[in-house]
Amino acid sequence: MSQKDFMLLRKTIRTNRLVYGLLKFPRLTAFLLTYLLGPRMIEKETPGNRDTRFGLARLGSGMATADELASMRWYIIAMVEMMENLLKAHEKGEPIVCYDWSVPSEIIRAFHVETTSPVHFNRLSFNNNSDYAMEMIDKADGEGLDYDMCNLNRVAMGAILDRQMPPPTLYVSASHPCDSSRTSNQILHYLSDAEHYVLEAPYHREKEDLDFYAKNLWDMIAFLEKHFNRPLDWEKLKKSVENINAFNKYLREVTVLHRAIPSPNLALYLQNTFSLHMTIPETDYAVNMAGKLLEIARERVARPTRKMKEKERVRVICWDPVPPAFDYYKWIEKHFGAIVVIDYEGSNFIPDIDTSSREAMIRGLGEYRLMTGMIRQTHGDATFITEELEQYIDEYSADCAIMNNTTGCRGNVAAKKLIIDVCRRRGIPVLFLDVDIYDKRINSEAEMKTKIRDFFVSNGWGR
Ligand code: SF4
Q1: Residue 1 burial class via C-beta count within 10 angstroms: exposed 0-12, middle 13-18, buried 19 and up
Q2: What spacing in Å lies between the alpha carbon of 456 and ligand 1's midpoint?
């Protein structure tokens, strides 16, 4: 193993441990971020802030309250432990299973094995330094991995080539949600040199689609039992499902509370929970984070402060995958009083999973994954995107919508005309940013901010 192997992972563990320690004192950290670090982070990337800026954006870019930071403490420790366990498994030569978006990965973890996902590595890269993703994209390019694919997938491919991701011993992919993931799954599998199991996920989510998915999940369990030569630990899975139910119950309420005017303004942290859905939603840490967010949301809705009322001038829906390269939620709040009230990845409408039988649990876990943000909207036809958007414009009293229109995300880009018509019908303006999800060289942050500024000014929401 070379010195450079998993360097990114090790560095992230170190910095996140430090942040976790700081977050034991959320008031002090909020003060430090608001008055010392934050102001140097939010406006633009500089050589001096490049290493920390994107990690800090997850923590509210110096605009987070002590309560919000306290919720993020659970998120940070969940990620740290997951990364440490992954490295330990690799060092001990234990199995590591890599899985795709819509795979209910808690079933795999109920075999007492470590898991990872390419998605996680993308976010990881940005928690360190935004240049890292460029390096991975260039690496993927150099190996002939086509630019037609979404850069989210190409960063993961570059990470495998660069030995930043501990190599999986098994790869479980799924046939949904998006074209780019389907294509890149095969290449990820080829690059990882691991055994590959493909789970067929349904296109729609009617009763028969969920039955179909449940049947395929049972086939996957049979495959895994044979592969690991041991049975699934049903006790562990049941405990996981109970925690997932608590996690989603809290987040559903937080999502709905954002209909209030002023909103509790937690969309950024709801979006952070997307990483937990994709990694270890069954942990007590995830439940604690969701519980804390609910406590904050209830308090803010019950007793909105004058500051909250004055701050919220524009209510925004952000309705396709947010490019971590251009984290603008707090920037639009600071400059235009624009508050994101619901977004694509963080909004939670996941139903409870029935734990009364093994069959019901497996079916419910399939539905959970199909209903998780981003998978929920992209695994079916375009109405999955547009009907939700139309409904939320009214329910969340939205003044406008922002579509990131990320290059490579073909399904969303193709829906542009439908989205324009939905917004026209509901009488709200929509901004299409046309950015790449990771490659800041395609559209610079400055260009994106100019577009946002022009949009808000032309609609009378700023100068
Ligand atoms: S951004 Fe779009 S294309 Fe890229 S992985 Fe997500 S759903 Fe797929």
Answers
A1: exposed
A2: 27
Report yes or no on 92 lying in a domain.
Answer: yes
Q: Which of 342, 427, 346 is nearest to 389 (CA)?
A: 342
Identify the residue whose C-alpha is closest to ligand 1 atom 8: 178
* The domain boundary residue, chosen from 214, 234, 254: 234
Q: Are residues 156 and 250 both part of a single domain?
A: no
User: 43 CA distance to ligand 1 centroid (A)?
Assistant: 27
- Tens of pLDDT along the chain (463 residues) come to 666 788 888 888 998 999 999 999 999 999 999 998 878 788 888 888 888 888 888 899 899 999 999 999 999 999 999 999 999 999 999 999 999 888 999 999 999 999 998 777 666 655 667 788 888 889 888 888 877 788 888 888 888 888 888 889 999 999 887 888 888 878 877 877 789 999 999 999 999 999 999 999 999 999 999 999 999 999 999 999 999 999 999 999 999 999 999 999 999 999 999 999 999 999 999 999 999 999 999 999 999 999 999 999 999 999 988 877 677 999 999 999 999 999 999 999 999 999 999 999 999 999 999 999 989 998 888 999 999 999 999 999 999 999 998 888 888 889 999 999 999 999 999 999 988 888 888 888 899 999 999 999 999 998 8
Q: Please check whether residues 276 and 193 belong to one and the same domain.
A: no
Residue 372 located in a structural domain = no
Question: Is the minimum distance from the CB of 405 to ligand 1 under 6 angstroms?
Answer: no
- Ligand 1 pocket, 151 CB below 6 A? no
Q: Which helix (H) or strand (E) holds 173?
A: strand 170-174
CATH number at residue 327: 3.40.50.11900
| The ligand 1 atom nearest the CA atom of 378 | 7
The Cα 328–Cα 338 span in angstroms is 10
Q: Please give the C-alpha separations between residue 26 and each of 22, 32, 137, 267, 364, in angstroms, as whole numbers.
A: 7, 10, 36, 19, 36
Q: Kindly report the pTM of this predicted structure.
A: 0.95
In a domain, 359, yes or no: no
Q: Say yes or no: 123 and 212 in one domain.
A: yes
Which of 234, 269, 298 delimits the end of a domain?
Answer: 234
Residue 243, domain extent: 235-349+381-458
In a domain, 355, yes or no: no
The CA R_g of the chain, rounded to the nearest whole Å, is: 21
CA distance 29 to 54: 17
